[in-house]
Amino acid sequence: MSLASDLVAVALVTVAFRALPALARPTLPFGVRVPPARVDEPALRRERHRYARWVDEAGALGAVVVVVLALLAAPAGVRAGAVTALGAADLAFFLVASRAVGRAKRAGDWYAGTRQGVTADTSLRTDPVRVPWAVLVPAVVVLLATAAVGVLRYPELPATLPALGGTGVLPDVRVPTTAGAAFAPVVQQAVLTVLMPALVAVSLRARPELDAADPAGSAARYRVYLRGLAVLLLGSTALGNLSLAVVAALLWGLAAPGPLATAALVVPLAVAGLAWVVFAVRVGEAGHRLPGGTAPSRLVQRRLVQRDDDRHWYLAGLVYGNRADPALLVHKRIGMGWTLNLGHPVAWAVLAGLVLLAVLATTGVIDLPARGGPTLEP
């Protein structure tokens, strides 16, 4: 990576961690559930301020470190390690803040006098949000067009191809021309086009994240959230396929590496990233930022509040495990989307399968598609 890209990476990591508390649901500060009447507690304000200060200071230090490493001509791996260390430090700050909020919650007995409960909306089962298949059409069109061009171009390819890597291809690193090497971008497009709709379909059937303090309102907002999330995932698939089509054009010699090719590759991904940021700001986790997302404070004590289930969440709400919960997928406390319930046997079967696949690929028992293959001297 260049110094500019290192600094951009430091900035992105810092901004992402800085934004986590602001984007979180008010009743889930730092992954800890609190009742609506306690969302403005002084302890929460102190932790948010301290966390923000730590993240800002770490980001400034990280920028200085990558500049020094660049001046010392440190290897790219070392500079990348510095960025990774920054992310690990920011995650540690988040965990520390989460533990502090949990201690304040227990010390103040914040749930004293509240009526805890859960809510369900059967209409999300009888009339579920449908997969917006029409949004997937552009991704399929790009996939088929790229595959067709590849089939026509394949007989004319040279004996070696540039290896995949960096922002597209590595012109100075060559690999033998095989069907696997030539059609690697198309295979990646196909995998993306198949997996993303499957992810959407499973997500739409996952247990909804509703608020016992506002059953009807939270259910309506959650529907909007689900529709938007499905559209974003499938739209991002099309944009990802566009970037892979540019990679294919570079690989097949239909485009030359350079600023224009890099822009054509990066712009679709940047558009997808911007769309996700806008969605997170305007809709929020489980739709909590949509209109009507906060119950009036004078009604809080008259209603149920969402049940305190912190005992089933670990690592600041990053990991969930509850053997008594039949749900395989539960909505994450941090960010948008779902996570596995590690108390469910199927979750461990899925994880075991992934570990087995990684072991078999690492030991060479199976051959997964690689970004390149055996290299040849330029």
Automatic annotation (TrEMBL):
Superkingdom of the organism of origin: Bacteria
Domain DUF5808, first and last residues per copy: 324-348
Lineage start: Bacteria, Bacillati, Actinomycetota, Actinomycetes, Pseudonocardiales
Protein name: Putative membrane protein
Keyword Oxidoreductase: no
Cross-referenced InterPro entries: DUF5808
Keyword Transmembrane helix found: yes
Transmembrane regions listed in the UniProt entry: 63-96, 133-154, 182-204, 224-254, 260-281, 346-366
Pfam families on file: DUF5808
Alphabetically ordered keywords of this record: Membrane, Transmembrane, Transmembrane helix
